[in-house]
Amino acid sequence: MILLGLLALAAAQCAAASSTTAAGSNYTAAVGWYAGYHEPDVPLSSVLWTKYTHMTYAFAVPTVDPGAISLAESDAELLPQFVAAAHKNGVKAGLSIGGWGGSQFYSSNLGSASNRTSFVKSVTGLIQKYKLDLIDFDWEYPGVQGIGCNTISSSDTQNFLAMLQELRASPIASNITLTAATAVTPFPATNTNTSIIPQFAAVLDWIAPMVYDLSWNWTAGSPVIQRALPSSPLDDSCFAEVATGEGLQGRGSAKSAVEAWVAAGIPRSQIVLGVPAYGHSFNVNASTAFLPSSSSSSANNTALQLAPYPFYNTLNHTVGDAWDGTGGTDICGAYEGPGGTWDFWALVDAGYLLANGSAAAGVPYWWDACSETPYLYAMDKGVLVSYDDPRSFAAKGAFVRANGLAGFSMWEVGGDPKGVLLDAILSAPTNASLAITAAAAPAATSTTTSGSGSNGAQRRRRVDGRTLALAVLIAVCWMAP
Ligand SMILES: *[C@@H]1O[C@H](CO)[C@@H](O)[C@H](O)[C@H]1NC(C)=O
Ligand SMILES: *[C@@H]1O[C@H](CO)[C@@H](O)[C@H](O)[C@H]1NC(C)=O
Ligand SMILES: *[C@@H]1O[C@H](CO)[C@@H](O)[C@H](O)[C@H]1NC(C)=O
Ligand SMILES: *[C@@H]1O[C@H](CO)[C@@H](O)[C@H](O)[C@H]1NC(C)=O
Ligand SMILES: *[C@@H]1O[C@H](CO)[C@@H](O)[C@H](O)[C@H]1NC(C)=O
Ligand SMILES: *[C@@H]1O[C@H](CO)[C@@H](O)[C@H](O)[C@H]1NC(C)=O
Ligand SMILES: *[C@@H]1O[C@H](CO)[C@@H](O)[C@H](O)[C@H]1NC(C)=O
Ligand SMILES: *[C@@H]1O[C@H](CO)[C@@H](O)[C@H](O)[C@H]1NC(C)=O
Ligand SMILES: *[C@@H]1O[C@H](CO)[C@@H](O)[C@H](O)[C@H]1NC(C)=O
Ligand SMILES: *[C@@H]1O[C@H](CO)[C@@H](O)[C@H](O)[C@H]1NC(C)=O
C-alpha cells in the first residue's frame, strides 16, 4: 500500500508538469540534436530527457552510393542505446542525415528516380533497424553550395520534394516524423517557381531554420575588417547602419527566417526555431572593444562599456573551446582555421559566465536589445563573444509562442548540460510585440525570391567532419589520465 501511495504521489507530481519540462511547456516540439561524437563528455545518462519531446541523433551521412547511408563516422553502437534511452524516457528518437560535413552526396543521391528509390530504401532500412520515430534531413544546402565540394544541381529542390513524397508514401515511413534543418532562406526556386515550397508542408512535419552562425563571412578574400555582428539574432534590423561590405548585413534572423518561410508557404505551426547553445568569438583589441568614453577607466572592467558591433580582423581566427578544432583539412581537402566557437558550458567553465548564465563579476557584458542576444569580452584573450544566454533564450521562446510556431530545436544537447538555456526557453512567456505580420502565400503564387547564395555562406560549423574527428580526438585525450 505504501508503495502504491508513493506511486500515486509520483504520478501526481508528473501530472503537475513543471514549466521547465517539455510536457509543461506546451511546445509541440522541444527538440535537441544529440551529437553522438560528444558522448564521452555527454553520456546518455546525463541527458535531461524531461526537457525534450524529441531528440535527434547526429549524424548519419549519405555516401556516393544512394543505397548506403552511413553511420561509420558516428557511433553505430551508440545509436541503439540512444533510441532505447529516449524511449525509456518517453522521448521520440530521431536520426539526422547530413550536416555541414555530410551533405556531399545528397544531390547525386536524389538526382534520378532510381537513385531516389535506393535512398528511400536506405532510409526506411534505418527506420526499421533502429526503431526510429523521426528522420531529420540536414542537407546543407539544396541548390546552394555548402562546404565547397558538395554535388549540386539546379533541380535539388524538386528532387528533394520528390524523394520526400516517395518516402512518405512508404508504409514504413507513413507514421514517422519527417523534418528538415534548413537555412534561414527558403530552398532555392526551381526555374524561378517558388510555389513548390508549400508542397514540402504536405510531406514534412516541420522545418527547423538554423538561426545561428550568421555572423561570419568565411568566403576567401572576404573583407579583412568587418563588424562582429550577433551570431543568432532574433531581429537584424539594427544592422541597418552597417554598410555593405562591413559585415553581413541582412544575413538573417529568427524574424527574417520565419517571415521568409511563412511567405513561401510553410505554415507557422510547421516551423521549429533552430537555436544555438553556443556562440562565436572574434579577435577584437581592447581599443576597439570599448566605447571611447570609458577607455580611461580600464582599471575597472565593470565600468567599461562595450561598443556595439566593433570591427575585427576576419583573417585572425580565434580559437574556441575544447570542442572547437584548432584547424585542419575538411572533407573537400581544404584547410580551415579554428572555428572560434564557445559552447555555453565552456563559457561557464572558463569563468566568463556564472552557472546561471549571468556574466561573472568583472567580465564586460553588453545586451544588444535589437538582436536580443548578449556579448561578453574576455579580457585575458582580447576576444569578444556573441552568444546566447537564458535571457536570449527566453526572448526566442517568447517569439516562438507569439508566432504560433511548433517549438524549438537546439544545437546541441551537450552545449547546455544543466538545462539553463532550456529552462529559459521552456518557461518563456509569450510576448505579443514579437509577432510578425507575414502571411502564408497561396500555394500557386510566387512571392519570395530565394537569397542568391547569401545562405550559401551560412555555416553550421559544428557538423564539419574535421571538427567531428577532432572532437573525438579531444574527447579521447580528455578521458586519458
Ligand atoms: C500551457 O497551457 C496551459 C493550459 O492552457 C496553461 O495553463 C499554461 O500556462 C501554459 N504554459 C505555458 C508555459 O505557456
Ligand atoms: C546516381 O547515383 C550514382 C551513384 O550510384 C551517381 O554516379 C549518379 O551520378 C547519380 N545520378 C544522378 C543523376 O545524380
Ligand atoms: C509506425 O507503425 C509501425 C507499424 O504499426 C509501428 O511498429 C511503429 O512503432 C510506428 N512508429 C511510430 C513512430 O509511430
Ligand atoms: C509552379 O509550380 C506549380 C506547382 O508545382 C504549378 O501549378 C504552376 O503552374 C507553376 N508555375 C509556373 C509559372 O511554372
Ligand atoms: C563575403 O565576402 C565575399 C568576398 O568579399 C563577398 O563577395 C560576399 O558578398 C560576402 N558575403 C556576405 C554575405 O557579406
Ligand atoms: C567599478 O565600477 C562600478 C560601476 O561604476 C562601481 O560600482 C564599482 O564600485 C567599481 N569598483 C572599483 C573596485 O572601483
Ligand atoms: C585594433 O583593431 C582595429 C580593427 O581591427 C584596427 O584598426 C586597429 O589598428 C587595432 N589597434 C591596435 C592598437 O592594434
Ligand atoms: C545569477 O547568480 C548570481 C550569483 O548567485 C546572482 O547574483 C544573479 O542575480 C543571478 N542571475 C540571475 C539572472 O538570476
Ligand atoms: C590576432 O588576435 C590576437 C588576440 O586578440 C592578437 O594578440 C594578435 O595580435 C592578432 N594578430 C593580428 C595579426 O592581428
Ligand atoms: C517583449 O518584446 C519587446 C520587443 O522585443 C521588448 O521590448 C519587451 O521588453 C518584451 N517584453 C517582455 C515582458 O519581455
Automatic annotation (TrEMBL):
Record key words, sorted: Hydrolase, Signal
A GO term (biological process) for this protein?
carbohydrate metabolic process
Q: What domain of life does the UniProt record list for this protein's source?
A: Eukaryota
SMART domains in the cross-refs: Glyco_18 (SM00636)
Task: Name the species this protein comes from.
Answer: Mycena sanguinolenta
Q: Name one GO cellular component term.
A: extracellular region
Cross-referenced PROSITE patterns = GH18_2
Q: What GO molecular function terms would the record report?
A: chitin binding; chitinase activity
**Occurrences of domain GH18 (ranges):** 27-432
Name assigned to this protein = Glycoside hydrolase family 18 protein
Signal peptide from the UniProt entry: 1-17
